[in-house]
Amino acid sequence: MSQADDDLREEVRTWLAANWESDQKGRSPAGPPAGAATPWLTKVVEARWAVPRWPREWYGRALTDAQARIVELEFAAAGAPGSGQDRANLWANTALAHGTQSFKARIVPALLKGEVGMCLLYSEPGAGSDLAGVRTRAERHGDQFVINGQKVWTSMAADADYGMLIARTDWDAPKHKGLSFFFLPMKQPGVEVRPLRQITDEAHFNEVFLTDAIAPAENLLGPLGGGWGVLLTALAYERSVMGEGARGPRSGSPGPSGETNLIALAREAGRLNDPAMRQDIAQVTAYKMLNRLNTARGKADLAQGASSPIMSLGKLAMSRILHEEARVRTELLGAQSLLEGPNHPRAEDANFLSLNAYFTSIGGGTDQIQRTIIGERMLGLPKEPEVDRDIPFRQVRGV
Amino acid sequence: MSQADDDLREEVRTWLAANWESDQKGRSPAGPPAGAATPWLTKVVEARWAVPRWPREWYGRALTDAQARIVELEFAAAGAPGSGQDRANLWANTALAHGTQSFKARIVPALLKGEVGMCLLYSEPGAGSDLAGVRTRAERHGDQFVINGQKVWTSMAADADYGMLIARTDWDAPKHKGLSFFFLPMKQPGVEVRPLRQITDEAHFNEVFLTDAIAPAENLLGPLGGGWGVLLTALAYERSVMGEGARGPRSGSPGPSGETNLIALAREAGRLNDPAMRQDIAQVTAYKMLNRLNTARGKADLAQGASSPIMSLGKLAMSRILHEEARVRTELLGAQSLLEGPNHPRAEDANFLSLNAYFTSIGGGTDQIQRTIIGERMLGLPKEPEVDRDIPFRQVRGV
Amino acid sequence: MATFTQEDRASLADGLRRLLGDFGTEADVRRTMETPDGYDSDLWRRLAEMGIVGLTIDEIFGGGGAGPVELERVMEETGAALLCGPLLSSGVLAAGLLQALHDEDAATRLLPSIADGKRVATAALTGDAGGWTPETVTVDAAETAGAWSLSGVASFVTHGQIADTLLVAARARGTIALFEVDPTADGVSVTPLPTFDRTLRLARITFSRTGARVLAGGAPAWDVVERALDMTRVALAGEQAGGARRVLDMTVDYAKARVQFGRPIGSFQAIKHMAADLLLETESATSAARHAAQALADGASDAGVAISLAAFTCADAFSAVAAASIQMHGGIAFTWAHPAHLYLRRARADAQLFGAPAFYRERYLRQLGA
Amino acid sequence: MATFTQEDRASLADGLRRLLGDFGTEADVRRTMETPDGYDSDLWRRLAEMGIVGLTIDEIFGGGGAGPVELERVMEETGAALLCGPLLSSGVLAAGLLQALHDEDAATRLLPSIADGKRVATAALTGDAGGWTPETVTVDAAETAGAWSLSGVASFVTHGQIADTLLVAARARGTIALFEVDPTADGVSVTPLPTFDRTLRLARITFSRTGARVLAGGAPAWDVVERALDMTRVALAGEQAGGARRVLDMTVDYAKARVQFGRPIGSFQAIKHMAADLLLETESATSAARHAAQALADGASDAGVAISLAAFTCADAFSAVAAASIQMHGGIAFTWAHPAHLYLRRARADAQLFGAPAFYRERYLRQLGA
Questions:
Q1: Which pTM does this prediction carry?
Q2: C165: part of which helix (H) or strand (E)?
């Protein structure tokens, strides 16, 4: 520990002691939710604690990662939110990395202070696994882009002020090269948000219909036709946050099943002495523990600078955990699993989980896509022939 | 039942009564093994009972399939071998369908009478799943072909008089179009047979090294460059025989494990009351029963002329059965499965099966290849892009 | 009993498929499953007219006189279409009890109106624990001066909330006997149970000194229940096999049509190989269900083994196919508007209705003498 | 006990990997596994010189004074190379017993020669039933005038046929005590057992009034056995994790190089996705083995849970990876000449050596309080 580190820690502590009262609102790791703006967040930003890794001209202190961790640790110790946004605020990082000076000057502070709500306009009915196949059309007219198309699986769309949008600006370029990335203003007539009813009978997501929606030219992030690159960095931020166990907007939630563990349920159901069930209970419990151990080891490797393939295995592992837990819960409940509703909470758990598990095994890239990514990026296995890669997008089958 | 059918049945019965003594040697469904030639087989052939569906000029009676079944049933009832070779004799059927008149005249009767031993020269070290990728070279010199290359997984090669050989005669044609099919004489200096030691520590198969081996031009079956078509019909015969439960030369054998069933083993091991093991035992026993039911239903559909996807599922099902049975046997034995040898027959069963199961899940097309075939031929799912299909073979990667 | 040729069975199935194609579409299912009664009285009438409701009821009682083989084929069609309604409860289970019982009077009184669909009957055979074994019966019968009354609880009663007639298994004189109860009688309270499978209806029924008509003179009746349950298990197996096949067909069609990365997703091995495995499960389920039906029809000595095999094979196959189907469809099948989850809900319900797969695997092994 | 930094551990592993790369190649393994003794005395000497054999033996006895964490890392390397020899029997299990026992004399007499590899010791802890629980001990000890003798049977004794010293668990005065036996003593009969894993050596040993030296004064010793077994389980988990990783690497390399249909087979989803699943199993095994080692080193209260978790996770992972590897290689891995089956044989052996995965899953649940 250097003297500089000690001084820094001292400075943060002193500042927190002087400014933090612990009754304040928290933040989601993916950035403050809409309307989460608080005097506190503003204070944190102005005191340059929100993004200590960033340069001074952008509310930062140009600290090293190690130093920034010190700041985050002190904030965590005090239970104070708002720091570490240089790692975790998907929106602000994307804007800072790719926005124009004037746009950044306007949007970045607002994002850090939680003054604007955001959503993701990535997936389309025709572009799920194949995100680069989006067909939402953005055409330049003077100093603005006119956007037409449909997006889906957008959470928080109703409250959002902006959506990070990937749209096609060039139909003659190959699929990855004709895309552009925008901060699309959501509060306008051309944007219609319709809740999407899920198989769980909930509606956490929306379809977003874009009809001559307008994005000012300065809301273009990155170069025209360079949207895929911007999207990849944005997805990387998202994954890094998800990797830390926080649930990004496109990851699943175990739902009620989290409330009680399998052993408790088995005891309650009088099945804890069934040797066959015990094997299943042990295995699912083990899968969960192993996923925690893998994540911890992956983090440790990364902390030591060693690259680790483990992180990207987490989602695949979680998918198996959720589906297997649903299966075992159902078997433990037997006929009870026929029922649902508030009077049958255990059945509700098992049934909800049996459906919501697909959220993780499909959402944010299906298990099949994950296996391809792991095989190619982690194990270095060769890609398949890509029939749609180097031809004009308008000639791709199905377009 | 028509009068003609009754007359036929009567004729067969009378003939069998007059000629068959039940102390004679049996035949393998894939055709008489080498050296299985018997006076009896000769008798059957000359009496035109061996291939009743075939035309009269080829030892047959031009009977309908229904009539031929009557003949086979009578032979089966008497326990007499030799009939039904028009369905089951891979070698004779292939020769009859594709050989030249003079070649057929010489080879077909010998095959029906079991006077010549046969083997298959299909797979190569570089052409396993991708059989059409064979690189054994056949070059025409005057009235014969000179053959160089290596074949593998050939059973009965040491005793064989001929091998059915697929070799490449045109390297500038696409992979499927440059192949030709031969009856290769095996007893010649250019053919070296080396036993292949398997992971089971047995050697049922051989590598066959071909060094300037000679095949007379008249041993070419089908047109030059038309070998793939001939191979497909040959494989179809093989599958139809295998589909009937008989094990073709490239299908697996359950080995010792067949001798005792799982319930008996569990009782012997004192594990029959373990509820967890009982679930596994029930499931594996069920898989076996289901495979029998599927085969029976598939045959019934075929008998009614309805096409049935079931037959081609049998190999995939058998693969699961064998691997799962090995797993359950091992779990039942516990520490005993560490051992092998004559003093530990149960361990020998489990360990042998755990290895030999790959014979079925890899041999004759891996489970993965089977799933592709089932998906495309049975379910009509589209093929993958084939990077090597329409280019000269010499340009194919890896050649 | 009437005899049916292969052609009779095929035309019966074809006619039913056409009827369900007209009046039992996905839209009809979605509409019907939201109604309190959970069935479409109009479609029910048509099914009765076609002879489906009374299919296995003796012809002397106005039924079709068919057996398990015909029933299984019919259920493959209703399973494929996710038919909502009391066919299994009334036409199969309740009718099966009345035909297995030796009670001429009850049969004469009840079977004709069950066959023509005007009467919906069901059976109350188990308590809150579920299980469908004699031990799980929690209704007691008492006789005073030749008059019987029932007290206790029956649960998981399929379509109990719409039944005109309840056939109740109750403890009487140290055995299990069957009783006929009018659900509107005093002391009967019928509570609908919320079901995860919204095409299903279940009820919990309490009896408190409820007047009941004893059937077959109160003779021990659990063997009768088992015979009716065997017919029901065969029917359910057919429903599961038919459901699995329809889901597989839907999924394969989608895999051919859905293009990602410039290719139909069915051209990717991940999807293609899953589909091949599902075909094996589906064909095995069909084989198991039809084999069980034939064995029961033949009165084969191993019919019980065949029925247990079908019970867990078809339950697991339908569940596996319905579950994999959602994964193979991807996001679109995560929406309420897509039918995939309706099949998964049905598959999960069918797998528990008269005993779970693990129960039947254990039973199968016991029946095999282990 | 010595302290090791991350760097120390890395260089220890690197040095061992180089040594095995020179003298523990596949060819060496194949040659060694066909010898009666099943180990290469030359390589054994080098391992001793490198401090591997005595790694976890206290420094005062000439060992390396290392703990479970270093041992686990080392075993990952020996597992990857399919090392043949009594490392686990002598350097881990027997040495572990002597270090857990309070018998200064035995420790002083035996540990130094075990550490320098000149003495091969092993432990006889179970009978013909296997099981490695006190109930499965089938050797009885009798004392007459201060002299102890053993009678009975011990089986599955690892490397029992080459051991210079046997540490035997026997029933004495109604408890289980440990005894030291010279295998050349009267009444000892050592029968080698044929093993499916040809890189392993097992023996069955019978004792008939065999003179034995009682250890720790005949104090109840099963807790000592459990402590030595915990160290052994951690070592075995490391061996399994290392074996799984080597097999996965081999398989991935082959999938990149092997061309069929004009493409490396690793470009097909069927192979690629299998490999991805195997990576998850392999990483989980590595995490479980290292976590168990750390927990044991820390004397954590949940070390037992961590060790059970590692025991079945690493056993199942190694078995699954070795089995899938053969399928992914195809025909070439069905030949004796290909190493894949050597790993499958080792994986199947390791999964049974000190208790099967199902046994450890059950134990894990009990240790979790269920």
A1: 0.94
A2: strand C165-172
